[in-house]
Amino acid sequence: MTKSFLLAGLAAFALLSTPAAAQQSPEAVAEAALKKAPVFDGHNDVPWALRARVTNVINDFDFVDTTDTAGGGEIAMHTDIRRLRQGRVGAQFWSVYVPSNMNEPLAIQQTIEQIDVAKRLIARYPADLSLAYNSAELEKQMKAGKVAGMLGIEGGHSIGSSLAVLREMHALGVRYMTLTHGRNVPWADSATDAPQHGGLTDFGRQVVREMNRIGMIVDLSHVSEATMKDALETSQAPVMFSHSGVRAVNDYARNVPDSVLPAVKANGGIVMIVFLPAFLDADVGARGVEKAAELARLKARWPGDPAAVAAAMQAWEAANPPRSTSIGKVADHIDHLKKTIGVDHIGLGGDYDGMDSAPVGMEDVAGYPALFVELARRGYTQAELEKIASGNMLRVLKTVEAHAASRKGQPPIETPVGR
User: Fold this and answer.
1) Angle formed by the axes of helices 46-54 and 104-124, to 10°?
2) Which of 94, 135, 402, 403 fits 237 for a cystine, CB–CB 3.0-4.6 Å?
3) What global pTM score does this model have?
4) What torsion do the CA atoms of 81, 273, 214, 47 make, to the nearest 10 degrees?
5) Mean pLDDT of the 356-385 span
6) 65: annotated active-site residue
C-alpha cells in the first residue's frame, strides 16, 4: 500500500465519520432551517405605513411589489408579498399601531381602523396572505404556503383603560398587546417617559391577568424596567418582547436589561430581536443624541428664527451623515441572549415599515436569510436556527393558549365603568 493511497483512505474515512451538519456550508444550514421552519416575525408596521401613505385607501394599492412607494418625504416600503417570499417569512404579527400622544377614545377608534385595514389587505391576496386566530390555524396556513398573519396592538392607550375594550379587541383578532408605547399610560410606565407609577398600577396588574385569562400575549417592548419586572411577576403565561434589543450590547432605554432576562427565562417568554439600527448599535444611537443636542443648541442660539435653525440643521446633517450598522450587530444581540438565557427564548421582531433604516444587507424583509447565514457561520445548528425562526414563538403562542383554555371557567375580571 503506497503512502498516498493510505492518506487518501484516511481522508475519506474522516469525511464519512464527520457529522453531516459539519460538512454543510453556513448557507446550506440556513437554507435547511428556513425550509423546515419559516420565519415567524414579531412586529411589522405595514398597517401604519398604509395609514401614513394612502390614508388606508387600498383597493388599488399594489402589495405584491412596493419598491416604488418612495416619495413625499417617505422612503420606499420595506414589505411586500414578493420580498416576504424571498425572506422566507411564513408568519407575521402585523402591528395595529396608533400614536401614543392621542386621547384614549380616539386611540380606540384608530386602532379599530388599523385592524380593519390589516384585514382588508390580507383579504385582497388570499393566495399569499391569511389571518389566523389561533396557533392551529396559523400552522395550517403556514403549511399551505401562506404568509399567516396575526394582529398585535402596540400600546395600552389603544384599550382606553378598559378591560371591556381589551376583551373586544381580542374578539376582533388581536393576539398580543404591548403594554405601553413611547408614553406612559394611566396604568403602566413606558421606557421613554418620566416614571409615573413605578411600573404597573393595581389596574395594570388586572390588565395582565385578564390578558392571561383570554389568551392575549403580554408584550413588554417599550415598557420601563419596573413595568417589565411587575408584568413578569404578575403573568402566569409566557410574555414576549415583540421587537427589542438587549442593553448589554447597546445600553438603550428600549432594550431589555440583564436584570430582567432571568425572569424571562423562568416565565418561558421570548425576546424577539429588533432590526432598528439605533436599538442595535451604540454608535448609530449616539448620532441621534448628537442630532437632538445640536437642534436644541440651534434653537437656543436663534430663538424665533426657525429658518436659520433649519438652514444650520441642514448643514449639520450634511456634515454628519446617518451611520449604518451590520448584520453582525443583530447576531451580537442574539449571541448575548443565547449565552444568558438560552436559545429557547430568542425570536425576531424586525420592525420593518416602522423604521427609516435597517442593517446593511437586511434593508427589507427579503434580508432574513442573510442573518441566518451569519448565525450558522457563528456555529448555530439547524435545530437552533429553527427555534429562532419560528419554533420559539409558536411555543409561546401555544402555551398562552393552553393557559387560557385552563382558565375557561373563570369569569371576566370586572371593573366599574364611568357614568
Assistant:
1) 100
2) 403
3) 0.92
4) -40
5) 97
6) no
